[in-house]
UniProtKB/TrEMBL annotation:
Residues 123-430 form the DUF8128 domain. InterPro entries: DUF8128. It comes from the Bacteria. Keywords: Membrane, Transmembrane, Transmembrane helix. The lineage of its organism: Bacteria, Katanobacteria. The chain crosses the membrane at residues 40-61. This is DUF8128 domain-containing protein.
């Protein structure tokens, strides 16, 4: 490090860390990059650049280790896939599903620091699914063995006559590598178009204001799924990750302050507070010595009555109220996937895709939250120009594997939805509204035998 390095006829003396502060040294290096980039790179490393390289290596090592132990711990977990059938005569509404998801949020159990970094423990997820296998519909919930009792209790509390059966994983019956000789696939993930502090439409928005009748937004999707024929399958999945509510509440409050023109309080760290102390002391001494204060010193005093929140339009007030209402509901982090898989001879994605996208559009609002199919990086897309077929085949395989693993990290980032929003996106059939003929339901309610039944 004590050697001098010649860069474009400019002598750069070997030295210490403070040479980083000398602009002349950096000019010399930049000039040298054009003539001898290897020597310039060596100068960068020898004069402290190695610290950055070490930090990058440690960062990569940190997350490689976390990924390794997390994958190892996940492989040991036991998961159960539960099929749910409700009686034909069930008259429960989406409010029951809302309550059910609020109860399931009790599964939030974040790992401690040691559990996360030494044992690879992560928060268990709950996955909601609706599938159609050749037109036969089934509601499913997949969860860990640890949360099975919680999930079943949540269902039975709202649907006492429901039948819950553990079933085999249907996703193992289709390939996860494409192109495939027998099957083709189309899939996507739904992503928000703006901040998830804004809400989607909830089940309350689909109740007729006059008659009170519930216009089920899932009805069109269930009808389309029931029309699939031999060799066709359709999978609809919502992965729920129970979370701590503080982060979302802070996010929503920040969005409200932005909309109402309020200034968000700036939190200073210890160094900034220490640097501010002498300035504050001098300001106090000056105020005492010369009198006055903010008004006398010419400083602008904030007037809360001049805040933009007093001048909001009716539509803007509605948006703020909607965010506050969402903030009051229990939130999950969510991933939403859709897959259509069929044999080559019957593969017709238009048969189900438009119905799915149309069903999802019912939950969108131009002034609040909307969700859309992701086609830029994850979903199968016709807009790809270079290596279109190969890239789409790669995306198909990744989507199938992510769906099969019920992954809450593969693909697009998770986003926040409240229990009322999720209840609109996934709910057990409101039998009086949904007429899909191949939707599986139990034939009758279960009941206890009368107490006076005679015994031999």
């Amino acid at each position: 490090m004590g050697e001098d390095i010649l860069l474009s006829d400019v002598r750069v003396g070997g030295g210490g860390f403070f040479e980083w502060l000398d602009p002349g040294q950096w000019i010399s290096v930049l000039v040298g990059l054009g003539d001898n980039p290897l020597q310039a790179m060596w100068w960068f490393i020898a004069h402290g650049g190695w610290v950055i390289l070490v930090l990058i290596f440690l960062w990569m090592l940190k997350y490689s280790w976390l990924n390794y132990i997390t994958s190892k711990a996940a492989a040991k977990k036991e998961w159960v896939l539960l099929a749910i059938d409700v009686p034909r005569a069930s008259e429960q509404t989406c409010k029951a599903i809302d309550n059910m998801f609020a109860h399931m949020a009790g599964g939030h159990s974040p790992p401690t620091f040691l559990e996360k970094w030494t044992a690879g423990h992560v928060q268990d997820t709950i996955t909601l699914e609706i599938i159609s296998i050749e037109g036969h519909l089934q509601y499913l919930i997949r969860t860990s063995s640890k949360l099975r009792d919680l999930v079943e209790a949540s269902i039975y509390a709202q649907y006492p006559e429901a039948e819950i059966t553990m079933v085999e994983d249907y996703t193992r019956m289709v390939p996860d590598q494409y192109p495939n000789d027998l099957y083709d696939c189309f899939g996507t993930e739904m992503v928000p178009v703006k901040s998830d502090a804004y809400p989607l439409k909830t089940y309350l928005d689909f109740e007729d204001s006059l008659s009170g009748e519930f216009k089920d937004p899932l009805a069109v999707l269930l009808e389309a799924m029931s029309r699939l024929g031999p060799g066709e399958q359709c999978w609809y999945q919502i992965v729920l990750t129970p979370i701590d509510q503080k982060a979302f509440v802070a996010k929503a409050q920040k969005e409200i302050m932005k909309l109402t023109g309020q200034k968000a309080p700036v939190k200073k760290n210890l160094v900034e507070k220490a640097l501010d102390l002498p300035i504050q002391a001098m300001s106090t001494v000056a105020d005492v010595a010369f009198g006055g204060g903010d008004a006398a010193s010419g400083k602008k005093v904030d007037n809360p009555l001049q805040s933009r929140m007093w001048n909001l339009t009716p539509g803007e007030r509605k948006v703020v109220e909607a965010i506050e209402k969402k903030m009051g509901h229990i939130q999950y982090e969510v991933k939403l996937r859709f897959l259509y898989i069929a044999k080559h001879e019957v593969f017709t994605k238009s048969k189900i895709l438009q119905s799915f996208v149309g069903s999802m559009k019912q939950y969108n609002s131009n002034d609040l939250l909307s969700i859309k199919p992701e086609g830029k990086y994850i979903g199968v897309s016709s807009a790809i120009v270079l290596f279109k077929e190969r890239r789409n085949n790669d995306r198909k395989g990744k989507l199938v594997r992510a769906y099969r693993n019920r992954s809450n990290w593969a693909g697009a980032s998770r986003f926040h939805l409240g229990t009322d929003e999720i209840a609109a996106l996934w709910h057990l059939p409101v039998v009086m509204q949904v007429k899909a003929p191949q939707l599986k339901k139990t034939e009758a309610k279960k009941a206890e035998p009368p107490i006076n039944i005679p015994f031999a």
